TrEMBL record:
The gene is pglC_2. Residues 9-187 form the Bacterial sugar transferase domain. Keywords: Membrane, Transferase, Transmembrane, Transmembrane helix. Its EC number is 2.7.8.36. InterPro entries: Bact_transf (IPR003362). GO terms for molecular function: N,N'-diacetylbacilliosaminyl-1-phosphate transferase activity. Belongs to the bacterial sugar transferase family. It comes from the Bacteria. The chain crosses the membrane at residues 12-35. It comes from Sporotomaculum syntrophicum. This is Undecaprenyl phosphate N,N'-diacetylbacillosamine 1-phosphate transferase.
Length: 201
């Protein structure tokens, strides 16, 4: 039964990713123009991230930060008031539109619509056997941690949510995460902070 659900999940990923790419292609063009008009540098930010079973792949995002701002500190998230973020970048991050190019990663089979967010490669050095379980599924555009507070939660709590998702995967859980993602986009991640550890959706 679990294998059937995983097959349905992959089919759903392909259909939805393809539809969204076709429908929003003109929007991609406009966003690209705005990025180029508001700061120097490329339209896309491309970086290697660990995916399923730790295999590396190149993740695509619309660039939201000034060139040379790639260096990050593990566990220290980029907040919207970070001065490295461009003017259009603030909107792209707040609306999650910066993640839309990852639909290409979904089509390539490197990502899913729902799953733990792909982290930077250097994070792997601190993974325990428990945390490594988050790599037993494809990373996602959205996930349980993203609809439970995301950057407003300590890194350890986000890892717990990711591992919980892997251990309790179901199409019903995916559906609830996708529905809650709309609320997060509209209201903001800070409105959905979950410190209870109950993972209620």
């Amino acid at each position: 039964m679990l294998d059937v659900q995983k097959a349905i999940k992959r089919l759903f990923d392909l259909v939805i990713a393809l539809l969204l790419l076709v429908i929003f292609l003109p929007v991609w063009f406009v966003i690209g123009l705005l990025i180029k008009a508001t700061s120097p540098g490329p339209v896309f930010f491309i970086q290697e991230r660990p995916g399923l079973h730790g295999r590396l792949f190149k993740v695509f995002k619309f660039r939201t930060m000034r060139p040379g701002s790639e260096r990050m500190v593990k566990g220290q998230e980029v907040m919207l008031d970070d001065d490295r973020i461009t003017s259009i970048g603030k909107f792209l991050r707040r609306s999650k539109i910066d993640e839309v190019p990852q639909l290409l990663n979904v089509l390539k089979g490197e990502m899913s619509l729902v799953g733990p967010r792909p982290e930077r490669v250097d994070s792997l050095a601190d993974y325990t056997d428990e945390i490594w379980q988050r790599l037993n599924v494809r990373p996602g555009l959205t996930g349980l941690a993203q609809v439970s507070g995301n950057i407003y939660l300590p890194l350890e709590e986000r890892y717990k949510l990711d591992v919980y998702y892997v251990k309790h995967f179901s199409l019903w859980l995916d559906f609830r995460i996708i529905m809650k993602t709309f609320g997060v986009v509209l209201k903001g991640e800070d409105k959905y902070i979950n410190y209870k550890g109950t993972f209620n959706l």
